[in-house]
Amino acid sequence: MTAPTVDRALAGAQRLRLDRLDATRLLAHHLQCRREWLLAHGDATLTPEITARYLDDCRRRADDVPLAYLIGQREFMGLELQVTPAVLVPRPETELLAQWAIEQIRAWPSGARAPRVVDLGTGSGALALAIASACPRAEVVATDVSRNALAVAQGNARRLQLPVRFAHGHWWHAVRGERFDLAVANPPYVAPGDPHLAALRHEPAEALVADDAGLAALHQVIDGARAHLSGWLLLEHGWDQAEAVRDRLVGAGCADVALRRDLQGHARCTGGRIE
Ligand SMILES: C[S@@+](CC[C@H](N)C(=O)[O-])C[C@H]1O[C@@H](n2cnc3c(N)ncnc32)[C@H](O)[C@@H]1O
Fold this sequence. Notes:
CATH superfamily of the largest domain: Vaccinia Virus protein VP39
CATH class of the largest domain: Alpha Beta
Number of helices: 12
Helix content: 40-55%
Largest sheet: 7 strands, mixed
Order of helices and strands: HHHHHEEHEHEHEEHHHEHEE
Structural class: alpha/beta
Number of domains: 2
Mean pLDDT: 97
Bound molecules: S-adenosylmethionine
CATH architecture of the largest domain: 3-Layer(aba) Sandwich
């Protein structure tokens, strides 16, 4: 029998129709090496155990399991976050929301007290940790209704040594009695039955799906904001939800309602200011 090599393992991944980048990232993960090493050592032999584990992961990847779950991590705003199936895999488009929040916090007057920031529905901790890392003056609180998600986010905060406080509960209820200067949220916003959900079936449904055509969670966050916020409420939403979110923000008395578009030109974040 021919000994398994790096090249043969990658050819096996190709037969499963895996993207080449995913195939090499997975193999680098199993061999604990850099991708560059693989490219220069195609004839290096692999143990049968590693080959079997690698091809097993390739099959899972071909079944739409996110690469981040298989390798256990995902980069967000330059931070290496650990992720598990308890949390949504942080998306590149969410960096748009992180950048908007960071811009606002950096504009906070230098002599003033520390700005208080909340990330509602933190998942892996992506937004809260990116903000805490970029804005060391900010006091950052991160919430989630999922205790398993909070455990992942807390682990990330510990590993990255970022001082974020965590609170459990339904949207603003998690921070009852507290007030903030800025709030971010990337709540679930996919409509039940949306055909895209099939490809997202390995991620937690409660992180993705919301009633009322995907708007229910966005509405809850907006409607509860005035009792807890004097400042910007910045929200991620679906590409076709900007108008509905803007109308709700205006209805809730927000001023300066504005939006941010992704690189494809889709409106993906909308925010407004509560005075
Ligand atoms: C789309 S994910 C976003 C995760 C993370 N903020 C990110 O951007 O990668 C939505 C998050 O909201 C949380 N969530 C869902 N319903 C919630 C609720 N009623 N109250 C608080 N958090 C909730 C989910 O557990 C999930 O972590």
